[in-house]
Amino acid sequence: MTDYFKKIDILIRKQQFQKSLSKLEKLQNELNAKLNNPEECSENELILQSNIYERFAQIFIDINQVYRAMQYLINMIKIEKELFKTQCDKESVLRLCNSYAKIGRCCFYCCYYEQTFKYLDYAQKLLIKHNLTQTGVYAMTLTQLGNYYRFMFQDDLAEQMLFESIKIREELFTRQSIEVADSLHGLSQLFSDEGKIDEAMKSISEAITIWTEVLGYQHIKTAKSIYLKGNLYLRMKNTQENLQSAEKLIAESLEINLKIMGEYSQDIADCYHSLGKIKAYNKNSNEFEQYFQKSQEILKALYGQSHASIAIILNNFGRSYYERKQYEEAVNCFEESIKIYTQLCGKMHGNLAITLKNCADCHKELGRYKQAYIDYQKSLEIYQKMQINSSQANQILNLMFLISDKYLED
């Protein structure tokens, strides 16, 4: 049976998802036929069922259908918790933590941030307790924790997790493995957020080389890193050459994703969003709107009305309107983004601080100095309490001082 699952894993890696699903469904039907009473499964049958659930989940993670993946992972966790109680050996610990790390990843995609940390933190502690830190499961857990801490603006912790995961994966699988490429992708995202564009470009270029050599250029994992490299050109100096490089790479990523995944996936939405950002550089046109709207449409179909990616798009919508002096339209976008961020992340998050400051800028231009002052104050409070981006905090203080007299008159 181990060889059978290895064949399915190869099919998943080759993106032959329909064939993989057919083999898993056949295996599930055979298992169901053998079980007279599902309540009385043997340990081997439970392990077999767990392995089936894991592969189903992996397929749906790969094609961005994370809610479906979570259904399988929840069932997988139920089985692994029962097996852990009776076996409590290293193998059962690894299987249980593997399921926690994967559902933690899904929770992160769905913006369930408390649950993300709960699952990943528990997996990390359990692996440390059982001296299983030099394992692929531990490295995967660290990579997901790195992504979580990056989003929470805890860059030092994120960097620590990602570098450690690379070291472990390199020792276990070699530097040219797809596991190392996965960690390098996460590290490049972190460097990008920190403004370390050269380091980010080096990491993502290495990741793309590995993906291409192992999986091929026309692969969704390669496409994800190509997309990130395109976005790095957007973070560089605003030149026509950089914009053209960005657009070329992002369009390539979009083409690969559309070919493999159809119209609706997170990665495709991200590509449309970034193409919108490129179009927004042309201040004489509102062509960017159609790309942002297409991205929002996909994300709402996948996740509903409230998702961090939707909030980010709304913020960029607002910035684009602000640059065109369409301040009322900008305020509407920023306020909707603020609402989503507050709902998902509470009142203390770096992205919320950014959007509040952007909204305040609009109110200032519209002569609403009281509201501008209030939003600046809220933004400043987040920066100061989280102890992030001191230069931005100082800029906000200066803006508050400049409008303080007008605020009192308002």
Automatic annotation (TrEMBL):
<dbReference type="Pfam" id="PF13374">
    <property type="entry name" value="TPR_10"/>
</dbReference>
<protein>
    <recommendedName>
        <fullName>Tetratricopeptide repeat protein</fullName>
    </recommendedName>
</protein>
<keyword id="KW-0802">TPR repeat</keyword>
<dbReference type="Pfam" id="PF13424">
    <property type="entry name" value="TPR_12"/>
</dbReference>
<keyword id="KW-0175">Coiled coil</keyword>
<dbReference type="InterPro" id="IPR019734">
    <property type="entry name" value="TPR_rpt"/>
</dbReference>
<feature type="coiled-coil region">
    <location>
        <begin position="229"/>
        <end position="256"/>
    </location>
</feature>
<keyword id="KW-0677">Repeat</keyword>
<feature type="repeat" description="TPR">
    <location>
        <begin position="311"/>
        <end position="344"/>
    </location>
</feature>
